[in-house]
Specification:
The protein is built from five helices and four strands. It is an alpha/beta fold. It has a four-stranded mixed β-sheet.
Length: 108
C-alpha cells in the first residue's frame, strides 16, 4: 500500500504500521510475522501473503488484499472492508476486494 492509503487509514482513526517506512524492506515472511505478533490486519496488493497464509500455514490476524485499484481510491476501499468485514477479519479471514466483487476465505 502506498503512503496516501496509510494517511487515509490514520485519518480515519486506525492504528497502523506502514511497512513502507521499513528500510530495508523486511520481506513478506517478516511482514506477515510482524502483523501477527502485533495483532494487526495485514492490508496488501500482493497475492503472496495469501499464499504464505494458506499454502505455508503462516499465522495471521486477517488479511485484506486489494486487486486492480489505482492508488487514490485504495484507502476508501480499505476502510469499507475493515468496517464491513470486521467480524470475519477478527477471526482470521482473508478478504479479497475487487471492483465488482469481494471474496472471503474464512479461517479453518
Amino acid at each position: 500500500m502506498g503512503g496516501g492509503t496509510a494517511k487515509q487509514l490514520t485519518a480515519a482513526g486506525y492504528d497502523i504500521r506502514w511497512m513502507g517506512l521499513s528500510e530495508p524492506d523486511p520481506g513478506d515472511e517478516a511482514t506477515i510475522r510482524v502483523a501477527y505478533e502485533e495483532e494487526r490486519i495485514l492490508i496488501t496488493l500482493d497475492k503472496d501473503f495469501g499464499d504464505l497464509a494458506i499454502v505455508y500455514g503462516m499465522p495471521h490476524r486477517g488479511i485484506i488484499r486489494l486487486v486492480g485499484f489505482a492508488a487514490r481510491p485504495q484507502g476508501k476501499y480499505c476502510i469499507a472492508a475493515l468496517q464491513r468485514f470486521e467480524h470475519e477479519l477478527s477471526h482470521g479471514a482473508i478478504v479479497t476486494v475487487m471492483a465488482d466483487r469481494v471474496r472471503i476465505r474464512l479461517s479453518d
